[in-house]
Design brief:
There is one protein chain. Helices cover 39% and strands 13% of the residues. By secondary structure, it is α/β, with parallel strands linked by helices. It folds into two domains: 237 residues, Aspartate Aminotransferase, domain 2; 127 residues, Alpha-Beta Complex (Aspartate Aminotransferase, domain 1), CATH 3.90.1150. The strands form three sheets. A seven-stranded mixed beta sheet has the order 2-8-7-6-5-3-4, sandwiched between helices. Strands 9-10-12 form a three-stranded antiparallel beta sheet. A two-stranded parallel ribbon has the order 1-11. It catalyses: (sulfur carrier)-H + L-cysteine = (sulfur carrier)-SH + L-alanine. It comes from Periweissella cryptocerci.
């Protein structure tokens, strides 16, 4: 594995926000930028060459989730994929009903379009979660109605790493009219996802979460689902997503996917689980009073660890770690500039819990090392001891 150098002894533990591009991905993209500039929609030699790269990438990605090649639609990332699945499904199926089910801890790319739909007369049920960040299947079954047209439930949560019962939900919906969409932006590349086995109709992903390029993702859209293109313009992506395809980035995305074999997924989950224990054991040994937000179950996203450092505000801890050259997060990077409390932790523990204002998220990646973890432990310990004085 080629190493990525951060320089200046910096430690990056915010991989749930974004990951550094893999060297293999950069090499692949550079080759395509230098040698393949044709428009994949053009019929001449340059266009046909670009089109071949596009379809080869589509095949690689489709195979990773047991989908058909023509079920993969390239997008600008998770946000566009989520918005497309939700808004276009609502528009296309409103004659069948106007009820949608989701959870209280979805990413804002799901929650905000749903809130907008509510202003248009749609009814949305936001399922609660327990202290592990997981919904109850009994609650889900109770919420499901004859007029439910869409269920959008994330595969794994970006703040606490909880893994939703996707397979069971898919089985329940197999004979229901509702289409099943899952935001798999954090889970893709780590968990075993099979869209056929799990009865998934639509799935959103983002390349930059798996050491690929930013501003690129895909929407898996099961064959037979009919709704209009979210973006209007050209006939790219079989008229399902207008806009000239970014061939170098798509080739880079496929390279990132090809690196993550089933064995590599297993290896990463085990490696990240060991990092979690190293963090928790190290802090405990140094007298830092911490608790895990969520759970440590084996089927969770192991790269995400959200911890409550009792008595130390999120802002103070985040600032001190940043000054020490260590990058972590106070929650989702998409709301980093917001002073609002985490809607995920609020849903799990209630708005009065001290966890809301005293928790941090660290997230591991391909290039995280034990030395990085040890530097984190040392800096947290130093900060806590200084504050106690």
């Amino acid at each position: 594995m080629k190493e990525v150098s951060l320089g200046n002894n910096l430690v990056y533990l915010d991989n749930a926000a974004t990951t550094p591009m893999a060297e293999e991905v950069i090499t692949e993209m550079m080759d395509k930028m230098q040698n393949t500039f044709g428009n994949a929609s053009s019929t001449h030699t340059f266009g046909r060459e670009a089109h071949t790269i596009l379809e080869n990438a589509r095949h690689t990605i489709a195979r990773s989730i047991n989908a058909r090649d023509d079920e993969i639609v390239f997008t600008s990332g998770g946000t566009e994929s989520d918005n497309t699945a939700i808004l276009e499904t609502a528009e296309a199926r409103k004659d069948l009903g106007m009820h949608i089910i989701t959870t209280a801890i979805e990413h804002k790319a799901v929650i905000q379009p749903l809130e907008w739909l509510e202003t248009k007369g749609y009814e949305v049920t936001y399922l609660p979660v327990d202290e592990n960040g997981v919904i109850s299947l009994a609650d889900f079954k109770a919420a499901l109605r004859d007029d439910t047209i869409l269920v959008s439930i994330m595969t794994g949560n970006n703040e606490v790493g909880s893994h939703m019962p996707i397979r069971e939900i898919g089985e329940i919906l197999a004979d229901h009219q509702a289409w099943f969409h899952t935001d798999a932006v954090q889970a893709y590349g780590l968990l075993d996802i099979d869209v056929k086995r799990d009865h998934i109709d639509m799935m959103s992903t983002s390349a930059h979460k798996i050491n690929g390029p930013k501003q690129l993702g895909f929407l898996f859209r099961r064959d037979g689902l009919i709704f209009p293109s979210f973006l209007k313009g050209g006939d790219q992506e079989e008229k399902r997503r207008a806009g000239t395809e970014n061939i170098p980035a798509i080739a880079g995305f496929a390279k990132a996917v090809s690196i993550i074999t089933p064995m590599e997924k297993k290896h990463r989950q085990e490696k990240y689980a060991a990092f979690k224990q190293r963090v928790l054991n190290g802090l405990a040994e140094n007298g830092v009073d911490v608790a895990v937000n969520g759970s440590l179950t084996a089927d969770n996203l192991q790269h995400v660890l959200n911890i409550w450092i009792k008595g130390v505000s999120t802002y103070i801890m985040q600032t001190n770690l940043d000054l020490g050259g260590i990058a972590i997060s106070g929650g989702s990077a998409c709301t980093a500039g917001s002073l609002d409390p985490s809607h995920v932790l609020t849903a799990m523990y209630g708005e009065d819990s001290p966890r809301i204002s005293e928790s941090i998220r660290l997230s591991f990646g391909r290039y995280t090392t034990n030395e990085d973890i040890d530097k984190f432990i040392a800096n947290v310990t130093k900060t806590v001891k200084r504050l106690k004085k």
